[in-house]
Structures are given as structure tokens and as C-alpha cells.
Design brief:
Elements lengths: L1 H17 L9 E4 L4 E4 L4 E11 L9 E7 L5 E3 L6 E3 L2 E9 L8 E11 L3 E12 L10 E8 L4 E9 L6 E4 L9 E5 L5 E9 L2 E8 L6 E7 L2 E7 L1
Parallel strand pairs: 2-9
Antiparallel strand pairs: 1-3, 3-7, 4-6, 4-8, 5-7, 8-9, 10-11, 10-17, 11-12, 12-13, 13-14, 14-15, 15-16, 16-17
């Protein structure tokens, strides 16, 4: 009897050893989600590269997915050209930018991505958008400029540039192009580009700008109505 029992137990162990353990089914997810920081300066924000794929990239069946983004704070938009649907694995990026950054309130905002899978159904994922006010970086473009020259009028003049007291990275020219009028400009801390948005001064439309990396050494391309010329400021 003992011999028969031992044989049965051994046979059961052999059968159990031959049975393949079944792991959990492959899971479809979004990889690359992390906190994204927006500096409310009125300029391009940045992008968050993501990949939609199964955790088992070899054996998992693929499917078609479509992504939706919700929860953006006021005055923050998403590039409509981003690839929001396709076959897995889907490599894309979420591109956010501010449409009126001086009115974007600092804080942390949970952004929700809803994923619709043709096989796996609907899932939601979340990442944080952090909006902060940067420290001033306009030191290269503010101050007194005693040697300004316009290659349009070929006249020298003096000007001074000062920070706007309420809006970061916004500056004011006090004697723009020697007209005695004030004009504002926006300075990008990361590209060092000083942009003069379109404004009417003395009945003429002005706009322009340039990259300004050297302290108090500006060379600006200025558009005045249909004319284009250079203004240097030292």
C-alpha cells in the first residue's frame, strides 16, 4: 500500500511540474508621464514625450488607441497637431503652451489623459502640470543706453529700458526709436529673444526683436510699416 501511495504522489508531482504557470495578462499603459513645469512668461512651454504600449512588448497583441487630454487650466492650450491616435506602440508627445501667460495662476494642476483602446477599453492616467513664476532674467536688456543709433533715420539718441513692475519678463523702452514714446517688449529667459509685439507709435506700426545675450549690447531688427531696419543700443 505504501508503495502505491508513493507512486501516486510522485506521479502528481511530475504532472504539476509539467504544468506551465499562467502569469497576469499583458497590461496596456502610458509610459513617460511625469510632472511638467510651466513658467508663466508668455512663451512656449515645452513637451512631454510619452509612449502607449503593453508592458509585454513581445507577446501582447496590439490595438488602436485614441487619447484625450482634459483638466488644462485657463489660458493653457495643447497643440492640436499632436498625434493622439494610432496603433500601439504609439510614440507621441503632449505639447502645451500658454495663450496669455500673465493670467495663468501659479499652482499644481492634475491633467487627465483618457485612453480609448479598441480591445482594452477606456482607461485614465494623470500627470501634474506645475505653473510657477520665474525669477527675473532681464538684466541684459534693462538699464540706461546712451548710444542708440537708427539705420532708418541715421540719428543717434538715448533710451532707457526698465522692468514692468507687475508682469515678469516684460520691459519698457522709454524713448523708443527716438520718438519719445514708450513701447513694451517681452524677453524669453531661455532663448534670450527680445520680442517687440506690434504697436502703434506716432501713427506708425512697429514690431520686431532679436536675440540679446550680451549685457546692454542690443541689435534689434525693427519693422516700421513696410520698412525694415536695424537699431543698435549700447
Amino acid at each position: 500500500m505504501k508503495k502505491i501511495l508513493l507512486t501516486l504522489v510522485a506521479g502528481a508531482c511530475l504532472m504539476a511540474g509539467c504544468r506551465k504557470e499562467q502569469g497576469p495578462p499583458p497590461q496596456l499603459g502610458i509610459y513617460g508621464l511625469e510632472e511638467l513645469t510651466l513658467y508663466n512668461t508668455g512663451f512656449f512651454v515645452g513637451s512631454l514625450p510619452i509612449t502607449v504600449r503593453y508592458d509585454d512588448t513581445i507577446n501582447a497583441p496590439q490595438e488602436t488607441v485614441a487619447l484625450e487630454v482634459s483638466g488644462l487650466p485657463p489660458n493653457v492650450s495643447m497643440d492640436t497637431a499632436w498625434q493622439h491616435s494610432g496603433q500601439t506602440p504609439l510614440h507621441t508627445r503632449i505639447l502645451l503652451y500658454d495663450t496669455a501667460a500673465d493670467r495663468v495662476m501659479p499652482g499644481s494642476y492634475p491633467i487627465v489623459i483618457t485612453m480609448h483602446g479598441s480591445r482594452s477599453g477606456t482607461q485614465t492616467f494623470t500627470f501634474m502640470l506645475k505653473v510657477v513664476t520665474p525669477t527675473p532674467c532681464t538684466g541684459n536688456v534693462v538699464g540706461q543706453f546712451n548710444f542708440c543709433f537708427s539705420y532708418n533715420t541715421f540719428v543717434s539718441y538715448k533710451d532707457s529700458v526698465y522692468d514692468d513692475p507687475t508682469i515678469p519678463q516684460k520691459v519698457w523702452f522709454t524713448n523708443f526709436h527716438g520718438t519719445g514714446k514708450q513701447v513694451y517688449a517681452l524677453f524669453n529667459c531661455y532663448t534670450h529673444y527680445l520680442e517687440i509685439p506690434p504697436q502703434v507709435v506716432g501713427g506708425h506700426s512697429y514690431w520686431g526683436g532679436n536675440i540679446c545675450k550680451n549685457k546692454k549690447d542690443l541689435s534689434l531688427t525693427i519693422h516700421k510699416d513696410s520698412e525694415v531696419f536695424t537699431v543698435t543700443m549700447h
